[in-house]
Amino acid sequence: MASSNESVYRATTTAPVNIAVIKYWGKRDTTLNLPTNSSLSVTLSQRSLRTLTTASCSGNFPAEDTLNLNGKPQDIRSSKRTLACISSLRAHRKALEDADSSLPALSKFPLRIVSENNFPTAAGLASSAAGFAALVRAVADLYQLPQSPKELSRIARQGSGSACRSLMGGYVAWRTGELADGSDSLAEEVAPASHWPEMCALVLVVSAEKKDVPSTEGMQTTVGTSALFAERAQNVVPQRMAAIETAIRDRNFPDFAEITMRDSNTFHATCLDSWPPIFYMNDVSRAAVRLVHDINRVVGRTVAAYTFDAGPNAVIYYEDKDSELVAGTVKAILGPNTEGWDGAFYDRIANVTAPGVSLDRIDSRAVEVLKDGVSRVILTAVGEGPVKVDTHLVSETGEIISS
Amino acid sequence: MASSNESVYRATTTAPVNIAVIKYWGKRDTTLNLPTNSSLSVTLSQRSLRTLTTASCSGNFPAEDTLNLNGKPQDIRSSKRTLACISSLRAHRKALEDADSSLPALSKFPLRIVSENNFPTAAGLASSAAGFAALVRAVADLYQLPQSPKELSRIARQGSGSACRSLMGGYVAWRTGELADGSDSLAEEVAPASHWPEMCALVLVVSAEKKDVPSTEGMQTTVGTSALFAERAQNVVPQRMAAIETAIRDRNFPDFAEITMRDSNTFHATCLDSWPPIFYMNDVSRAAVRLVHDINRVVGRTVAAYTFDAGPNAVIYYEDKDSELVAGTVKAILGPNTEGWDGAFYDRIANVTAPGVSLDRIDSRAVEVLKDGVSRVILTAVGEGPVKVDTHLVSETGEIISS
């Protein structure tokens, strides 16, 4: 039997993307990634979007930790955030080893981490959340750490704030916390996906001319310069957090939708109010806003909700029973040949053959702008948190495998 | 000699457009047009943009007051605002007549008011401000009222809030006032045009696809629904009013410019934060924002300031000495054949032959978007208030004359 020094230890996990409905924007501590306000997100199904990460370690590996993302070696030493996550995880492992000398000394071995997204980074989806969640979950599994997802969220948060919300499925809150060391700034499940599995999400991928201000930089510009920012963080968001948790508990889609849309708008308002101003939404985004309001108006109830992150892509939430009204109408506008309709959730719209809402009742200019400006869709739904899998990206002997 | 009953009494005035640098958005009393916050504007030269209005009255006119705008008879009875202005002015005239019985009883005669703008309504400029200011000034002149422009602003305000600021030239504040009856909600001159005559304004007229929410409706939506609105009205604007008045007093363009741009952004942020959200700026507007920030960055000092009203048009303020840097750069982008360069202020840029800022230092996409999206320019400057003129739009015998 090989000594523990020669073995290659491996653990592999998938992790999901999450899309916030109450937005995280602004840090009160940039090193610890402590937010100025709580946030809440829906975890999206990994049938559509997921990061797959293998964490491995061995006494035989060359001395330094390495990270390979989508086939490319990363300069791990230049990423303080990755180093912070690894360092915390290793310290937890070390504590286990100190308490039980029979455990192999994995904390002393170099790590080899390999990660792949199943979606293009260019799609403008927040891949860092899934990436850091997968990294933390995979290393924690490799190290056989006893910490709960909630406890691990403290570590993932240091990689990318929103990553802490990707450690759980369903409906996840990230509590801002009050302690200066951030130990109470944690993610927690508000409700599992099974509580409200009917929640669908349709992403309209808008070809951005150019990446605008990166969110890490943008949010601190807002914190430092917006005259309206403090009002959102201190007064508006706490009320909305309470209200949307109630809406989720009650599966009250109209309330969930209105709070979601309003908070997206308020978030982008604080960006516009920054100095210099930050614009993430463009005319295509505005057309998606118009479309959703038009659909809701024509249907006579709130069946769809838009939300926009730090980019022009629209994410439209709706319930499965309203697929025809929402996805069907979007499909009629964009045409069935738009890339993405044939994804993992195709069955949900397979029977949808007509626009749920007659297109002549939708603002005609919005229709034209969307037709020209949306390059692909991602049809997905609420989903589960990270899943342990056996499709390792590192072989038994330590070589990187392409999935 | 004809009896006073048979005579046609006439007074004619021109009135200017004004463009706010601290925006008026929101009424605390919709009937009296009382604003939620003070505002401040620059009166633009009537060499470029003006309303010409003749107020006339005669005992021989048919019994009802009439109003003719740009050649078209208006239904005066359906315009509560016009009726409110006329009623106030007539009451003031009546008071004069009651005190001096030798005065002709003009307050008893029907009014015939004829008004023309020298710019297309379609240009998206706030013609109602100039229109109501001209109406009030012309009728006040007809009635030989002793009230000062500040006192008349109380009347014009009831026609259109921002009209009160068009009764004076230069730099004009509209104080929100505190009294419930609005009697202290008045416009006053902060500084005459002659205090800082170097102020130029370049309007980029953006072909709006479609008129968005009218401002009267939009502002009350914001008051009623925006979570951020109260913060702007109560805290942000009072500080900015004080700061920009200091900047104007000191002719400090960089301060004037930054406050102007920030307040435009904050105003549009509260629109976006409204429910449903209101968008007045589009991708062309955003390109103008980018252009101004790029020019200021390349020049290394703040030479230009943008501001946007309830529409996509950009108004860019700058000082005459920086014409080459600002107007010259815009001219290089749009081309010399863009409609409007050959206006009343052509002499100010006649010697400008090259872009002040090399176009390869400006965001290339902003350049393209502006080139495609700006349909005409209006090159103008700070100017005087209403002027009494003899070019009547009503003949001595009461017929409407086309100017």
Notes on the protein architecture:
Two copies of one chain form a homodimer. Chain A is an alpha+beta fold. Chain A has two domains: about 180 residues, Ribosomal Protein S5, domain 2, CATH 3.30.230.10; about 180 residues, GHMP kinase, C-terminal domain (Alpha-Beta Plaits), CATH 3.30.70. Chain A has ten helices and 16 strands. In chain A, strands 8-7-9-6-1-16 form a six-stranded mixed sheet, with helices on one face. A four-stranded antiparallel sheet of chain A has the order 2-5-10-11. Chain A has a four-stranded antiparallel sheet with strand order 13-14-12-15. In chain A, a hairpin with a 4-residue loop joins β3 and β4. The first copy, chain A, is globular, with a radius of gyration of 22 Å. The two termini of chain A are about 30 Å apart. In chain A, about 55% of the residues are buried. The model of chain A has no long low-confidence stretch (mean pLDDT about 95). At the A-B interface, α5, α6 and α7 of A face α5, α6 and α7 of B.
